[in-house]
Amino acid sequence: MRAQFVLSEIGVGLRRNLTMTFAVIVSVALSLALFGGALLMREQVSTMKDYWYDKVNVSIFLCNKNDAATSTKCAKGAVTAQQKEQIETDLKKMDIVEKVIHESTDDAYKHYKEQYSDTAIASVITPDQMQESFRVKLDDPEKYKVVATAFAGRDGVESVQDQRGILQNLFDLMNGMNVAALGVMALMLVIALMLIVNTVRVSAFSRRRETGIMRLVGASSFYIQMPFIMEAAFAGLLGGAVACIMLLVGRYFLIDHGIALAEKMQLVNFIGWDAVLSVLPLVLVIGLLMPSLAAFVALRKYLKV
């Protein structure tokens, strides 16, 4: 009997405040979709870092005869065979080094021609203008500075470059977008909470006589609060469900179909469905609990009858 009464009160409350309930559902859905999207964006950045950082190398460029005239670091002339041998030996002794690959001037010239064969400058570049280098694969790419400190400034070394820097601007952009999404999410969350509190207050005010009578006949605070809290929880749960659908549809159309980024950007390792599905329960739980807590706080004033 009590359960039937609570459920009937929930239906009455939702019908009385249909417009505001709809606004709560929409605002909760948008804020939680942005929240889930921000979590997935962070996961995407992490996935891309793991994928690309595992592939990039530290490059130690050696001096050639042309560098001796243009670079102060190569003032002593082109790298000697003894210096090359010593550099390679020292690299292989380092615990953080996984693999060392020597790229000769001929190899560098061949790779350059393959990548830039369509450009005008490719026709005037000669092998002797290219730099020899050691491509160093590290166990942990974050330890680049260890190699840079050990070899920068050595005789025969023109420069030490970390290829992660090429990707860092992209990751910084994605992190910036993630922060922006979190900022918009926070704004939408505040709007959603304000709507929830106002909706509960309007509902409680319109039923103040019933709640007063219930208090006078001995109904507990929890029993009086329950219909209002469940109304807010139901609206929030619907908003969470809509947010989950938005995340699923977004993943489907952005990556797999529609825009199909997975086909257009094959070098990018996109997050899978497992990452999206792992976020959905959290979105639903927040969608359920956030309005419930907001309603509980808002009702404390209206129970003093």
Written description of the protein model:
With 305 residues, the protein is α+β, with helices and mostly antiparallel strands. Helices cover 68% and strands 8% of the residues. It has 11 helices and 4 strands. The longest helix has 43 residues, at 164-206. 29% of the residues are buried.
Sheet/helix structural class: alpha+beta
Question: Can you give the helix content as a percent range?
Answer: 55-70%
Order of helix and strand elements from N to C terminus: HHEHHEHEHEHHHHH
Estimate the global geometry from the Cα principal axes: elongated
Whole-angstrom Rg: 31 Å
Q: Overall pLDDT, averaged? A: 77
Strand order of the largest sheet: 2-3-1-4
Q: How do the helices and strands line up, and which of them pair or pack?
A:
Elements (H helix, E strand, L loop, with lengths): L1 H15 L1 H36 L4 E5 L4 H4 L10 H13 L3 E7 L1 H12 L16 E6 L5 H8 L5 E6 L1 H43 L1 H9 L4 H36 L4 H4 L8 H27 L6
Antiparallel strand pairs: 1-3, 1-4, 2-3
Helix pairs in contact: 1-9, 2-7, 2-9, 2-11, 7-9, 7-11, 9-11
